Structures
1.
Amino acid sequence: MCGICGYIRKREVTPGQLKRMNDTMYHRGPNDSGEEFFEAAGGYFVGLAQRRLSILDLSALGHQPMHSSDDRVVVVYNGEIYNFRELREELADYPFRSDCDTEVIIAAYLKWGISCVNRFNGMFAIALFDRAEEAVYLIRDRIGKKPLYYWYEREELVFASELKPIMACPDFQGRIDRRVLSRYLYQQYINAPESVYENVYKLAPGAVLKFQGGQISMWNYWSVREAYEAASGQPIKSYDEAKEQLKTLLQRAVSFRMIADVPLGTFLSGGYDSSLITAMAQEHSEEPVKTFSIGFHEEKYNEAPYARAVADYLGTDHTEFKVDEADMFRMVESIPKYFDEPFADPSQIPTMLVCKLAREQVTVALSGDGGDEFYCGYNIYEKVAQAQKLDRLGAVVHGMCGLPVLRRILPEESLPFKARVIAGNRDRETKTQFSAGNYPGMARAMVSGLPDGERALPVHYPVESGYPVRDWQICRMLLDMDTYLPGDILCKMDRASMKYSLEARCPILDPDVMDFSYRIPHQYKYAAGDKKHILKEIAYDYIPKKLLDRPKKGFGVPLDKWLRGPLKEQLLCYTQHDFLKRQNIFDEPYVEKMVKSYLETGDRGRGTGENYSGLVWAYFVFQQWYLCFHENGNM
């Protein structure tokens, strides 16, 4: 686990400048660092740098940038290739000098070319310089576990694991891309390929970028849609067979992710996913696995007793820390520094706290991320199923409300809130993304007008017709795999864990497990209203049902209380007319009025679609980020 950065450009970056870029990611790799420079055809200079968190082969032989034995290939890389030992056996003719997976990447590329990525089982962001081809390749893992940004402008490329190294690059202007802001305010994150800056992009999950001769080309070696389309055509006919094969694949995925030369543990919330992963980890360990959970003093949010009961049953070495509101509040200040661009999922705060707890004892932690998206776990999936059943009725109501003779006596806005949502859900590209209240309109109105010729990105993702399914539930799951999972969940875990130099591994997102999940008929995942049915049944093989069956409480962050209390003055400062006018990003009168209304409304808007704390929090986090990097001289 590391951080990488580099460039291929005609304007040379000095050694000191590249080192400064690299050192902005010290938290990602405190054990070692390296920077190297090369000349390339066409007057280009290449710089490669890496910060290392040592996990495998802790010796100096794992140092990066790493060269091939013939010096043709140079690699910097962030992540883990879990099947590197199996690949190494296929590459026995290569003169290996180390026992780390980085060198396997080099050997695999020399033997199979860039198609070697199809053989990698892991999480990774790779930058590879082929000195014979005079080409730089950027490669990201299938589901986007590891981040990779790139700035492409004037036929030059700069890349990094985070935005901070790009911000520190000479000549970077940092022009904010206002097209993405309404979507960010609504979604609370910025999904690939966009970033908060113009001409800076996130490499999409499962993608390869090639830079050669000043030009870039990109292609996907894996995608959610194509993988689902290929695998779902070969469904598993038997439930028992599906369960047994999935269990075997998960066991293998967990065993792969327990390979480390440093202490390892698991996050344990007491829910199905983390409990199953912990049980399988304990199955593969000769000693009690170290497990970590946080609890809350407010019982309505506190899941710690459930996690403790699971830990006791499995016999793990369990550590629990009960946090209070003050512990969470202290994390707010660190959000912009470690999340790099505006990111407003409030569960980032307790996630950082549990990572901090784990890092006190281990360097690697296994998580249950991916279970909800791949096995139908979120509550929204139930609402989506209900909405599909009511869609025809909603179309009738929408049509009737549009008739002039009826509109005077039955305007659509007079309907009950839920009826308005169903009736207004008419766009076939966003059928599973129906909105609460006027959130989309408010998010759009908050951002000031764009320059002529530029259009804001829609707040929803208008892509649903591209998924080869009619079932709205499956469609929404696939959409979440493409957007919410990599853009929010995995981004949150990466930044929260790397803040403390902790490597997080996700067995449920193993490539073989993901591909197999698409072969599992949907009724095995959502069985008569039972979400994650097949995953639960596997968990029951390890843990008594009575320890797991309970409503999920989730991490609770008191946003309304904070924004109307200790953060109120800060929020008002961010909304001052002079500040907004100087910033020239947000619509001053609208934002001033909206924030004032929010502070005065209190809890009266709950359940009506009028409680817009999510928008206000996203706005607050953006302004916090803006001040950190654009007003305080950090860029």
2.
Amino acid sequence: MISYLQIESVSKAFGENILFSNISFSLHKDEKVALIAKNGTGKTSLLNIITGKDLPDEGKISLRKNLRISYLSQNPEFNDQNTILTHILSNSGSISKTIDEYHYAIESGDSLRIQKASEQMDLSDAWDYDQKIIQILTKLNLPNVHQSVEFLSGGEKRRVALAAALVDPADILILDEPTNHLDLQMIEWLEKFLKAMPGTLLMVTHDRYFMENICSSIIEMEDNTIYQYKGNYQYYVEKRAARLKELQASIDKACNIFRKELDWIRRMPQARATKAKYRIDNFYKVKEQASRKIDNSTQTIDIQAKRLGTKILEIENLTKSFGDKTLIKDFSYKFGRTEKIGIVGPNGTGKSTFLNLITGKIRPDTGIIEKGETVHFGYYRQEGINLAEDKRMIDVIKDIAEIMIVGKDKTLSAAQLLEYFRFDKEKHYSYISRLSGGERKRLYLLTVLMKNPNFLILDEPTNDFDIQTLNVLEDYLNNFPGNVIIVSHDRYFMDKVVDQLFIFEEDGNIISFPGNYSDYQYDVMLQEKETQKSEKVIKPIVEQIPKEKKKYGFKEKREFEELEKELENLNLEKIDLEKAMNSGNLSNDELVEKSNRYPKLLSLIDEKEMRWLELSDLQD
């Protein structure tokens, strides 16, 4: 295999906080690799070092000569004066100026400017590149390429940065949490795009289905060590479990040896002095091995939420619009006890609006929302909360409550809750300013849970969480005795937690579906098959072509001949268009019309030529 990138003995620390130490691994041509680790262990820092945005404290990064890297960072930078198009083209070399000028020439209506821009598009072979940009932006729901970056939301900016990384032709594509701020349709499209993409991919992601379907290799950072697994996510889970089982066996063995050695080391100094020094040295090595702890706990807690009465939440004929856009239209639902409901749908269809309506943050246009007297909401918002930078983590939790009731005569202290959600004891007194983005989100979640609600509402709780934290949260929610509503684009998470879906559609309708996301996908697939089956036309027997002649019959012969005529006419139209745009005799309106037609014509010619080639092969 051809090595593209080598990381050799790389270390990075911030003050006393060691992110990783002496790690080494390689990336090879056409590999698709996921990098996973706990929050706060330096995944983003490592990507920044690889891409040259930061320097390691020690070690070396070697990149094969003349390779190009494209990078989606977790916090991309923007110039608010740019449009979406100019931002995407800013790192694309001279071709960017050509495409940018062409779009502005069309907008200006200046015939001479359009003519010159079109000629330059021809010379630079930029038509296909421009079309690729438009296709990707459309898939990411960013159709207005001339919209100013300044007026985009945080999620839209993130999608613009993703589009810029995907458009840029690179040998190595590096993506830091690419599925954040994407809806399910976008994630499924991106999954197919990356799977079919040539080149090498390195990404940090917590989306387990995404990882399973794309990656051929997984790199895990744990305890300042790199573990590589040559397989997808399922393979990683199996092999990691086997590795930890083997490690636990070696720790247990070391503990037995340590007890014997400890008895020996405690004897009289005179007796110990007669022993070999190597045994004393070995004692400390065994002690270190015996003291190791495997961070793989799946402890469960018997949660006791506040009592729920018979009336939970009743919604009748709920409607909400903003301007001309109806987000929720005449929706009614009566919640039963302990229901766990997932909400899915494209971005902008009112999912967060729905949560704000039922919690009373905003008022409906029409309809009634009645909450039971015993219901206590715990609302985790997508935008999070501002935490005081100079406050310690443990104090943030204690300010809410010192203890949390989790069962009959059972309580959980603030420190125990932090440990349950994978905050090591030594971090409990860390200042908020020292926490990573994922750790801040995790702490915010704990401030919601510590209030002991009986109806949890979670808006994108999986963003920025590591896989280990997601496993803990999934266990917590599965044992939670109250109601849960979750908005999430993490299909794996939804499959493990929810038993019902609200599907938000773009016309304001909300469909209730009994099952998880995989059940819903399967149902959609069956419906599509039934639709295709019902639309299929059954030909009379007399018109059927013998099986051996189906490859190329009369119908295909006729289509082939018609395609030849169409291609001849289309190519003549292309020549006429080019002559007209270069003549200088067109009016502004005529030039704009022909310039808009030209890229569409090229696409149509490509499509017809591809079909012509398919039919040509069938003749052989």
